[in-house]
Amino acid sequence: MFAFLLLVVAGLATLAGFYVGVTRSLPSLELTGARGSAQTTRIFDDSESPTLLAELHGVENRQTLSAAEIPQILRDAVVAIEDERFYQHQGVDFLGIMRAAWANLLNRQIVQGGSTITQQYIKNAFITDDQTLDRKMREAALAYQLEKQWSKEKILNEYLNIIYFGEGAYGVEAAAQEYFGVHASELTVAQAALLAGLPKAPSAYSPRKDAGKAMSRRDLVLNRMYQQGYITSRQLQEALDTPLELVDEAKGADGRLPYWVEMIREQLVARYGSSTVLGGGLKVYVSVDLELQQAAEDAVASVLDQPGDPSAALVAVDVRTGRLLAMVGGSDFSSLQFNLATQGRRQPGSAFKPFVLVTALKRGISPDALYESGPLTVEQPDGVWEVSSDDEGPLSLVEATAASSNGVYARLIMELGPDAVADTAYEMGIITSLGEHPGPAIALGGLTTGVSPLEMAMAYATLATGGERLSSSVDFDPEAGPSPVVIVRVTDSEDRILDENETERTRVVDPGVAAMVTACLQAVVTEGTGRAADIGRPVAGKTGTTQNYRDAWFVGYSPEIVTAVWVGYPTEQKAMTDVHGIKVTGGSLPAQIWGAFMKRALADIPVSSFPDAALGGWVTVNICSESHQLATEFCPSVEEARFARGEAPTESCALHAALDLPQVVGLTVSEALTVLERAGFTVSLAEEESSEEPVGTVIAQQPAAGRAVKGAAVSLTVSGGMKRTVEVPALVGLTAEEARAALDNAGLFAEERQVPAADFAAGTVIEQEIDPGTLVPLGSTVGIVLSGGPPETSF
């Protein structure tokens, strides 16, 4: 942090030197401000023969007030939120710049700016078409000059008369009448605070477009006013308790493309200032393709063609150029000046699943990996997450994506983690906050705020490009994040180019991963929930349907164009359970609108195919279904699985590894058990009662000695013969052969020895060691003594 402070001080010193140099070269403020007569700004399409789309005039909804007509409460509100040191600095607030830099560092994003009210006035009133790198220094230098010539009251008064408050209102009088139907002098504390919060981002904080965000901004202004001593605690509480009450909207914007014109107007004002936009004679060339725009409007009208139908938003972006080609922001701009395509944020449902799939493939999970698909209940810190699913049995990720299986994706998010999926979505182009710590419901499109069709289109475009995120090279809307090219080129009144906009591409997803996800999303259209979007050529996409059928999406792309379609009721969370006699899902009306538009949009474009996923570095290997490692000949269940390059398993299955199976036939049971268990095998026993081997002897094993899988069961057959008892026959007096035969018939064995015996013939049994009739185990050995004949005599 200390190093950062040193860097800031050094930077300020450098800026101060540059500032001095710039001020020496500046013309007088009066000459810089000598603008002559106002000239109309014209908006054209960017075709070979540009068509005039709209004109922006300086007389549009502006009324200038004297200082006495602007209430002090409004002055205080603007100073409190825009420039609290307004009355202390001399046009440039170096302390404010340092404070903003510190806040931006702590938050790791731009949360504060350092421009003063004087600088903002200079930007809007004097600096017109100068877009060189030193414009900020020129603003600062002119602000310093102006502070020497004008009083603070005059600067603030002029600023409040020209600043843009949204909805075509320039200046506080027009804004007061536009939103509240009163003169500026009649504004209440709450109303003044709301207006003061608008100039920073008129579209984002518009009370007509997002009442909740506007009220939060208003309350922030009120708290700043209290903290800085402009209002009392009682005034603060009364204003905070005041509800938002707006007058009926004014007539909508003129022109053939009102949603386009309003969006372009706001972007121009954000970059050049309202004075230049309304009186500088700019020529603005924009990306709209008029034929495709008509096709988009026709597609919506052809499907939603009955009274009481929900509304639709459509966004189409050229994947090759990054240009916004067509946009349907609503059905009636005059009745609802809210652009559903860019400002509407609704729950995406299963249309969010591709971000989960990308995360899984990046993690090395195969698209052929199997997951259970049934319902799931997960205990969470804030309660129980219950996921319903109509699917049964294991499904691969390819199958689960085509079928939009909630059960599979719920289990997948528990493996990946919600934060990882949110990071992927941000990288691909989602700009709306998904929450500091999103929950697992993000996998099924359960978001904190929702997303707009524009950002969904841009995020899916990252897949259509093969993994490159598209963004505009000129930042016309600093708060919008990655956006398509809308304003292509801007020239001044003398046709000098002020800005030329191009598409920047940033690699955020591996081409192989993008190709595989596209292959999965192609299956959604050909055999899954998005069949209504099948237009007879290679396309990929995903359906999305939220709870109670309140929102329905289809977002898809060809190799040339990505289009997002949302269908729903814009001003209420109304269930679409009976529209044209059906429950509206992403695969119904949105997919039909998408298909109708894309057929016309691609009619004159030759058919092309997506990159083959197999060429993107994917390999197919056989893996064990249980261990998910490389299969061996001993794995009982084997499946083919595809993996991105470098992500395939490299180790053989450890669960079913092969070992040397020893020979244990002939060993006793206890000896065999010891040998086999030490070698890593399990043992089962069977008894063979008729065996002639000694009881407890292993007489057979299955499998035989050799190679076998670790942990396999070895079946041993053990002799049980000695467990039967038989009577020992009488053997004395029998010949040796007769004795052997008698013992053999009884299941016994003979153990013979011979002694001299004069009274018996040689070979005759003269003694048996076990008495006749004794019961002994089958297979026992009976000792017999044979006569060796008379002893030899010697002389």
User: What is the topology, as strand order, of the major beta sheet?
Assistant: 2-1-3-11-12
Give the CA-based shape. Answer: elongated
Helix content: 25-40%
Structural class: alpha+beta
Strand percent estimate: 15-25%
- Low-confidence runs of at least 5 consecutive residues: 1-10, 12-16, 18-28, 30-37, 107-112, 128-133, 250-254
Main beta sheet, described?
A: 5 strands, mixed
What's the gyration radius in Å? 43 Å
Q: How many strands?
A: 28
Distance between the termini: 125 Å
Question: Helix count?
Answer: 23
Mean pLDDT: 84
Describe the protein.
There is one protein chain. The protein is of the alpha+beta class and about 800 residues long. The protein has 23 helices and 28 strands. The protein starts with a helix and ends in an 8-residue tail after the last strand.
In short:
The protein is of the alpha+beta class and 795 residues long. 34% of the residues lie in helices and 18% in strands.
Topology:
Elements: H1 2-25, H2 29-32, E1 41-45, E2 52-56, H3 72-82, H4 94-107, H5 117-125, H6 135-149, H7 152-162, H8 172-180, H9 189-196, H10 211-227, H11 233-240, H12 258-272, H13 274-279, E3 283-286, H14 290-303, E4 311-318, E5 324-328, H15 353-362, E6 370-372, E7 376-380, E8 383-387, E9 394-396, H16 397-403, H17 406-416, H18 418-428, H19 453-464, E10 468-472, E11 487-491, E12 497-500, E13 503-507, H20 511-527, E14 540-545, E15 551-557, E16 561-568, H21 589-601, E17 619-624, E18 638-643, E19 658-661, H22 669-678, E20 682-688, E21 698-702, E22 706-709, E23 713-719, E24 725-727, H23 736-746, E25 749-755, E26 765-768, E27 775-777, E28 781-787
Parallel strand pairs: 1-3, 20-23, 25-28
Antiparallel strand pairs: 1-2, 3-11, 4-5, 4-16, 6-9, 7-8, 10-13, 11-12, 14-15, 15-16, 17-18, 19-22, 21-23, 24-27, 26-28
Helix pairs in contact: 1-6, 3-9, 3-10, 5-6, 5-7, 9-10, 10-11, 14-21, 15-17, 15-18, 15-20, 16-20, 18-19
